[in-house]
Each structure stands twice: as structure tokens, then as C-alpha cells.
Amino acid sequence: MTNKGEINLNIGIDKIGFYTPHTFIDMVKLAEARGVDPAKYTIGIGQEKMAVSPVTQDAVTLAANAALRILDEEDLEKIDLVVFGTESGIDSSKAAAVYVHDLLGIQSRARSIEIKQACYGATAGIQLAKGHIALHPESRVLVLGSDISRYGLNTPGEVTQGAGAVAMVISADPRILSLGDQSAYLTNDVMDFWRPTYSDTAYVDGKFSNEQYISFFLNTWKQFKSQTDLSIKDFEAMCFHLPYTKMGMKAMREIFVEGTSEDEERLTRHYKNSTLYNKTVGNIYTGSLYLSLISLLEQDETLKPGDRIGLFSYGSGAVGEFFTGILQPEYKEALAEAEHAKLFAEREEVSIEEYEEIFSEVLPVDGSNLQLTIENDPAMICVAGIEEHKRIYVNKNR
């Protein structure tokens, strides 16, 4: 018999990896180019670098490259559900998951779907995956969160752009994080962030969005406590959706009054480690919470098996969810830390002028054919062009 709020069936994250484009800009240099005090970017919102996605990468290729780094032949045979969370989808009909399914060579007896709800999509995928694994314990589910955040050059939201993807294998008896049965979630129709189908950039009411984020966190946190016997003292760390790295702290500090000074110190210390990757990549929408989790697990040396981690997911518009996970005995061995360190080390800084050129190079929207040069993109999977209204993808391994 399990206690209230504890895990009945051991389902969770068995593998987790991410990918980000090979080019980035320095936020101090962006601030200087925009005539802004650099501290507004580096301290005010907590960003140091921002990934810049070339035209040879889109949400599909970013996700496929993230998954390519963690999947083995056994995964390709056992995965029978692919769930792709994104708000940067490339087709209004065909799911991005179908492209990734083919690019990775996953066995054909699988469901492949796309989920959209702003930055919440990957979390929805995880919850769907849990139900699937509960019914089919031998199966594995690939959950993807992939996005390119675009607000436009010289716009207020420019500093919170970014690009990247996170891939997760959800399974029974996971090696990294066992997910709890209890979740608290909330939906409310608010216009804090949206992107109409006719626009390739998003619209955002920044101040209102920050307020809604905090409100949703406090609401779901209160719900979660009412569902379980857990309180702030029971959490070793908390990870947040991070549109920018100061946002999660704005929410978390609201509950510090519920604990001791030791609770505040512990959660703050872990939080800083959870932001290290995000502050050098930027906002990746659906993957941001899980990039924060990767950063925490790979950069924090004081975590240990059995620690409980809180996870807050927020997708503007809006849907929020608070849930938990327990670190497993072999979680460190199951991480792709060396791969991620290599990925960061091999990135190249581009000038602000080069960034503006890259940002302005987009795929045609009038149906024109296009052939792209992919030799300069070190990614294994790339967009090679457009033919007869169809994007052409290349896996260089094939």
C-alpha cells in the first residue's frame, strides 16, 4: 500500500537529451547593438547567450537531432508512440512527429502525433505517455519538445528568443526520474501570449504573462499540497518553465514564506544550477522546463538518488501543471552529460550583423522550390530544401 501522493507504478524518464543549433550570439553584444544597458539582459532577465537557428534547421530537425543522441536500436524497436510538443509546427495537417519517426528509423507499428498548447505541449506528451506505459509496460514512448522562439529583430521580445529541442524516453522502471501519480493542473482562457496563423512571430503582453505565470504556479502548488501530504520541506529542488532564467525564481520566492531559511537556501542553490543551460541557449518554449531539468541533473553535484524534484510547466493561453519526480539510483549514469558538454563546446559565436542575416533568411511561403546548402551545418539531420510544397529532410547517416 502506498502513502497519499506516492508513486504506484514506476513510470518516468529513462533517457533525456537535447540539441541546440551550432551558432549563438552574446547578449552583452546584442545589448550594445540595441543601445541597452547590458545588465538589463544579463542580470535583469538572466541571459548570457542566445542560440541562433540557421534556415537549415526547423522544429523537426532540432527534435530529431536531440533524439538521435540518446536512442539505441532497442529504443527504435520498442518505441510505439511518438508525441511531439511544439508551437513551431511546419504543417497545419501532418504531425511533426511523423517526420521524426521516419528520420530516426523507428519501427512502423507506432502512433505519431503532435500536441500544441504553447510551452505546455511536451508536458502534455509526458502525461499521455504515462497512461500508455501503464497499459503497455513493455513499450517506450518518445516525447519531444522542440521550438524556435521568434519575436523579431529590434522588438521587446528579441532578448527572449532561442532555439532547441529536448527528447525524452518514457518507460517503466526508468533510470533517471520516476514520475509521481499526483498532478495539479489549471486551464484559463487568457491572452498573455499568442501567434495567429498569419504571423511568423508571436505577440506577447509581457507584464500580464509574468503575472499569469506566477498565478498559475501558486494555484497549482496549492492544489498539489491539498492532494498530497507534501510541503516545501519535502522538495530537494524545483525546476520551472524558463522563458528567461529569472522567471522561475519570481514564482518560487512566493512560497518561501511556507518554509525555513534552510528551505529557501536549498531551493535557491539548486535553482541556480537548473538555469545554467537555459541562460546560454535562450527560450525554447516546449523544451524549456526539461532543459532546466537536464541542467540541474548534470550540473548539480549535491543531488542524490531519492531526492524529490518539483516540476512546474506553463503554456501561455493558458495551461499550467505542477508535478513531481524522484531521482533514481542510476540517474547519473543514464545522463548524456559528455554529449551535451561537447555540443556546447563546439558552438560558434556569430556577430550581431551575422545573426540578423541568419534571422532574416527564411523558407519561402509561396510554394517556391528551394535547394539549401547543408554542408556548413554540422547537424546530422537538416532541412535540405523545398520541392513541390514539401520540405526535404536529410539524415547524413543514411
Written description of the protein model:
The chain is α+β, with helices and mostly antiparallel strands and 398 residues long. The chain has one domain (11-395): Peroxisomal Thiolase, Chain A, domain 1, CATH 3.40.47.10. The protein is 34% helix and 26% strand. The strands form 4 sheets. It has a 9-stranded mixed sheet, sandwiched between helices. The protein has a 3-stranded mixed sheet with strand order 3-2-14. Strands 15-16-17 form a 3-stranded antiparallel sheet. Belongs to the thiolase-like superfamily. HMG-CoA synthase family. Residues 10-173 form the Hydroxymethylglutaryl-coenzyme A synthase N-terminal domain. Keywords: Transferase. Residues 188-262, 268-359 form the Hydroxymethylglutaryl-coenzyme A synthase C-terminal domain.
Strand content: 25-35%
What distance lies between the first and last C-alpha atoms, to the nearest angstrom? 50 Å
CATH third-level topology: Peroxisomal Thiolase, Chain A, domain 1
Uncertain parts: 1-7
Strand order of the largest sheet: 5-4-6-7-1-8-13-12-11
Tell me the name of the CATH class: Alpha Beta
Shape, please? globular
CATH architecture: 3-Layer(aba) Sandwich
DSSP helix fraction: 25-40%
* Major sheet: 9 strands, mixed
* Count of alpha/pi helices: 14
How many beta-strand runs? 17
- Annotated CATH homologous superfamily: Thiolase/Chalcone synthase
Count of individual domains: 1
Going by helix content, strand content and strand pairing, the class is alpha+beta
Radius of gyration: 20 Å
What value does the average pLDDT take? 96
Keywords: Transferase
Family: Belongs to the thiolase-like superfamily. HMG-CoA synthase family.
InterPro entries: HMG_CoA_synt_C_dom, HMG_CoA_synth_N, HMG_CoA_synthase_prok, Thiolase-like
GO molecular function: hydroxymethylglutaryl-CoA synthase activity
